[in-house]
Design goal:
Blueprint (H helix, E strand, L loop, with lengths): L8 H23 L6 H8 L3 H5 L5 H24 L5 H17 L4 H4 L8 H24 L5 H20 L4 H14 L5
Helix pairs in contact: 1-2, 1-4, 4-5, 4-7, 5-7, 5-8, 5-9, 7-8, 8-9
Length: 192
């Protein structure tokens, strides 16, 4: 049995699993998501390959944890960023601004590359649920603003955000793109 590094077997298991996720995240950031293999993660974490398989079925399963952690952190940060705002238009404004800042500074890079990974179906569903959770503050604001179909409107705002991200990644000014995305999104809430 492996040497215990924590006070209990359960704590030891959690620490090792966390170390594996951290190692995978570091490899993905340093070398790209394709470099995350069971062998590379085991080496970075100082464990054997068989130890990795005791926690994860595959490198894709391990990457799902990395992506899930990133999405969960972003969802918490987004919720906190709009928590003190009551005006729906200001929530939408702050949601877009915060999202673009979060993506532009690289904190969302691993989740954006999730499409490159053939995730197990159950993990893909989990990642989809976490992505939808990112939209919760936006959906609530759009509902409060009177959108007829707030989920559809949120998806449309997300599409505008995606265009802004691609433009920023191509060298466009982040502030200009954020202002354009906010103007477009809020303009769509005006009565026809």
């Amino acid at each position: 049995m492996p040497r215990l590094i924590a006070g209990s077997v359960a704590e030891n298991r959690d620490l090792r699993q966390s170390a594996l996720v951290s190692a995978a995240q570091q490899i993905a950031v340093d070398q790209g998501i394709a470099a995350v293999t069971v062998a590379a993660v085991a080496k970075r974490a100082g464990l054997s390959r068989s130890s990795v398989y005791a926690y994860f079925d595959s490198a894709a399963d391990l990457l799902a944890d990395v992506i899930a952690d990133e999405l969960d952190a972003m969802a918490q940060a987004l919720t906190a960023a709009v928590a003190d705002v009551a005006d729906p238009a200001m929530v939408i404004h702050r949601w877009i601004t915060f999202s673009l800042d979060y993506i532009a500074d690289g904190r969302h890079a691993l989740a954006r590359s999730a499409g490159q990974v053939n995730l197990p179906p159950t993990r893909r569903a989990q990642i989809g649920d976490l992505h939808r959770r990112l939209m919760d503050p936006l959906v609530s604001a759009l509902t409060a603003a009177g959108a007829r179909d707030a989920v559809r409107a949120a998806q449309q705002v997300a599409a505008v955000l995606d265009v802004a991200v691609r433009r920023i990644e191509s060298g466009a000014d982040a502030g200009t793109e954020a202002a354009a995305a906010i103007s477009f999104a809020l303009g769509g809430l005006r009565p026809a």
